[in-house]
Each structure stands twice: as C-alpha cells, then as structure tokens.
Design brief:
heterodimer, A: 432 residues, alpha+beta, FAD/NAD(P)-binding domain, D-Amino Acid Oxidase, Chain A, domain 2, 3 domains, 9-stranded mixed β-sheet, 36% helix, 27% strand, globular, B: 91 residues, Alpha-Beta Plaits, two-stranded antiparallel sheet, 6 strands, 20% strand
Chain lengths: 432, 91
Amino acid sequence: MAQYFDVIIVGAGPAGSVAALKLAREGLNVCLLERGSRPGAKNMFGGLLHNTPALNEMVPSFWEKAPLQRHVYKKVLAFMTPESTVSLTFENENFDRPPYNGYTVLRPAFDNWLADEAVKAGAVLLCDCTAEELIVKDGQVVGITVKGREGELRSNIVIAADGVLSFLAKKAGLRNDFSPGAMGVGVKLLLGMPEATINERFHLVRDQGADIAFLGIPEGIRGGSFLYTNRESLSVGMVMHLDSLRKSGKAPYEILDNLLQHPQVRKLVKGAIPLEYSAHLVPEGGIKAVPRVYTDGMMVVGDAAGLCYTNGINLEGINLAMTSGALAAETALKAVEAHDYSAAMLSLYKKKLDETFVMKDMKKYKNSVGMMRIDRLYKTYPRVLAGIMEKVYKVDGTPRTKLLRLARRETLKEIGLKDVIADGIKIGRALL
Amino acid sequence: MNIENIQQLTQFIIDEKPHIVIDKEICRSCDHRACVQSCPANCYTWNEETNLMSVVYETCLECGTCYVVCDKGAVDWTYPRGGYGVNYRLT
C-alpha cells in the first residue's frame, strides 16, 4: 500500500467521497480515510438528500444509480402544539419528475455507494482508520497519523471532511472550541412500515415521498421535528439546540417519546416497528460559526466547515457539503498542477465557495440564526396560531370575530406588543 | 409505541479501551451535570449517594453532545479507534 498520496481525504461522508471521486477521475493518487468499518457506518441525518448539481455532474442521472428511498413529492410545514398542528401542505407535479428536487435517503447505504463510486474511479479507501493527529512540517500540513490501523500517511494536501466535530480543523488552529450555542443535536428513530401502508397513510403513489417538518417542540425547546417517508420505513426525529435542550432538563429520548405520543403523530406511526436509533450533532451556528476553511496543505469541507443552514423553512447541509467537496477537489487539482500547496494557493477554494450558492445562501440567511433562537417561535407562536385556527372554525352559537381583530386578540393574549414587534423585525430581517 | 428499549436496536463494536474518560473530581463539584440529561444514549449516571459520576462508553452514539455541553473540561472525548464504536446498519 502506498503511504504517500497526492491528497488524503479524511471522512468518507458525502463531502469527502465527492472530493475523492473528482480527484480520482482526474488520475490523482487519492486516499479516502474512514473511521467506520464501512462508509456510512457512523453517519446519520434526518433523511433528505437535496438535488445537488455537483453530484449529478459527476454521476449523471445519479437517481437511477444511487440507493435512494423516495423522491420528495409532498412538503408539509406544520406548527405544533401539544393538542394541535396547523400545517401547510405543498404537492407539486414538477417535483414528480427528474431531475427530482430531493430524495429521502438512508445514510449507511447512500454513503457506501458514493464512496464506492470513488473507489471505482481509483481512490484508495481505508476503513477502520480514525485520523488522530496532523503531521505538520515547516508550518504546512503534510499528512496524518491514524489510530485503528496504526501508522501514518503522507500527502501534499489533506482535505478534512471529518464531520461536525472536526478535530482536524481544531488541531490546525482553524476554529475555536465547539460551543453549545452553535450546535444542535439530532435524534432519530427509524421505524419499519410496509410500503403499501406508507402509500395509503401519506397519500403517495409509486416512488413519491413526503417530508413533514414540525416547527415547535411541545416542551418549549428550540428545535424542530421531522418525519420522512422511506420506501419501507419512516425516519422520525428531531433536532434541538444544545443550549436549549440543556436548559430544559429533559432527555432527548423522552422528548422523542413525547413526539411519538403526540395525537397527530401517533396515528401516522401506528403499528410501525422500531428498527434503529441514532444521534448526531448538527452545525447550527450559521455563517458566523464557519471556521477558516484552508491553511497551508489543508482544506475543510462539509459539516467540518459548518456548511449548513436553516431558516425555519429550508434545512440544507448535504448539498452544501457535496458542493464544497467538489470545489476543494477542483482547488487541489490546480494546486497539484502548480506544485503549490500553500494557503495562498488553497485560498482559491474559499473564493469558489463564495461564488456559489453555498456561501451565498449561508450569507443570505445569516440573520436566521438569531431568528431561530427566539424561544417564542417554538411554543408561543404555534399556540397563538392554533388558537386563531380553532376560533376561525369553531361553531358555538356566539357571534364571530373578523380575522384581523381575532389575530390581534389571540396574539396579545400570549405576548406583549413590544415583543411581537421585536420578533416581527427579527423574522422579517431573516426571511424577507 | 414503546421506545423504552430503543437503545438496544443500535449495533456497537465494542473496544476494550474507552474513548470517553471523565474527571470524576470535576463532576463532583459540577453545578449542572448537563451530560447526564443531554446524552441521547443515556451514557452518564450521577450517583447521589456516592457523589460519583459514571459513564458507559460502550453504548455511546458518538454524537459528542456531552463533550460540547460540558463546560468544566471534565469530558475527555475522542472518536473511538477505527473500526470500533457505533455501527449504523440502516439509518
């Protein structure tokens, strides 16, 4: 086995494997390092693979080849209180034909497939290898040490695709400590259910899938819940801000249990069989939490670079990750051609990130990080909304109130006018 | 749905060497012990009688929540050796 590579990529997740695939296709000597016994063994997410042109460029019509579950035809945004949900459902024929807008995915299978594409292109995949220390020579990263299969590997460039807790980025001095205010924890239960039951219960046909996002965790924790339909299973779980979870004094699995007991969720998951439980951190600090993404001999991609954002409606990460992997690979190619692995050369990667939707969207929604930290968004506003809807529909022999007056009354019952205005400004600045 | 035993659904390849080491002295004087409640895998237990924190690394999902919520520096947390630890099959 060659101990020396043009590029070592740490982490065979979506960002790392895309980078490896691109570099191997160009004939570079690439090592893809994975700490699991196979790619995907350590990885979980809610369940949505967004359409990613960078992936389609490398594997045209990837949806015909990759192990995907269903394409997302139905999007539901639901505001949740302990008794009710107020939802907006969007079903769209344009999401029912290729190139599909998104897919539900199970990571052990998908990540393994993508890494295998890189291997087929000539990348060397080393599993059972945890990257431990960076090897630095004259201020430049020139390799890594490995624990598991002990040893060291040398290269001209290291691409850190080592996930949300990127110890490599930290060891390279590119980022500060990990802070609970910039992290969410996701927990998920995979539930087995027959395909026909899923189709009937969620009103789907063929390979159509549903993505239900619940805003508001009844315990008042800042976070959201999700339910995705796979072919023969449901991915149900939630993402919670770590500082808010800590303050709540509740355990994640208790909160998950309460979600599954919620009257409107219970009937969706009835009869399903628990298959696997998983948890993972999510970078939620927005653009302010993005570390420096390059240094001499090293670039940082995907979750390791904090490339993930939510604005309450969109929640994107995997598409940003894969695109960043492709851009780091493009930069590495230029660097290898020029025999220049300096930070000045690798700064091209940051420039490329800035020019694409990756950093443009991270910047666009920079204010949504603050918006998502409004506690009232998760408990009070869903309650106000549900209160309005109840009175809109309720028939009880008393005279009706017109909508504006009703909305005002229901809102001011729960929140002071000053807070409503302050929240309105925050939400407006984040989304409008 | 009964989810009492969901943690047993996940597969682990157990290393004899722990990847989490805690400083029990620091835990003893900790004013929040957020790790106990925040860990999605219920790995941490605080014993009121003995004033001792204990951690079960064998069923750790490797999310790193404890490492991030501990602001006392009591949690020495690394990724397990290659090939060991949680092994997701389906998720």
